[in-house]
Amino acid sequence: MRYGMNFSRQPTLVQFLKSRKIDTVLDVGANTGQFARSLRLSGYAGRIVSFEPTSRVFGLLQSQASSDAGWSVRKEAVGDEAGSLEINIARASELSSLAPFSGRADMFGRATEVIGTESVTVVRLDDVLPELPGENFFLKLDIQGYEKRALEGARKTLKTLAGVQLELPIVHLYDGGWTFGEAINYMDESGFHISQISPTNYIIGDEASATEFDVVFRRSE
């Protein structure tokens, strides 16, 4: 007897994209393009638009995308108001953020050390989306404690998306961020339910315990 469950395989993000006929992925917080490259290696052949605000890392991202005609890059941060802000540049570039580090960030050692700041351009997704080609969009947000602010600038965009991936914390590395539960409630109120959850970073010295999860949300039926 079948109950609509299959325990023999684990669903993947690319399966999700294919099942929703996603033709454009918005890769917000691209860093050097790790997420986009993983999509390509997993078989996603659609359009990717990557956002990365800091100059040095953007140069590396631009180089990665240069040979892929379906992958465009934008030197912008994403938030709730268009303008410019100072970003804290961490020694580990993927931890750089518009939000300040919390006291808990020390658990990552020198990786969270702020080695500089940079004034970056900030855009709202609601302003950007009309400029972009595509019909079925998926949004990935990995912007280190600034996800809620980005979604506040994407109220209209959320209504058009087939799915969203957020990096959500259990341990808060940044001040002013939301809790895991607050994020789930926000997405539920925006019309999305959880589809997939995967642990990402782990507590140093306790690798059996995750600090963050990548959570994929599907639009509610």
Automatic annotation (TrEMBL):
Matches recorded under NCBIfam families: fkbM_fam
Start and end residues of each Methyltransferase FkbM domain: 27-193
Domain of life: Bacteria
Protein name (database record): Methyltransferase FkbM domain-containing protein
Entry-linked PANTHER family: NODULATION PROTEIN, SLL1456 PROTEIN-RELATED
One of the record's GO molecular function terms: O-methyltransferase activity
Database matches in SUPFAM superfamilies: S-adenosyl-L-methionine-dependent methyltransferases
Any Pfam family: Methyltransf_21
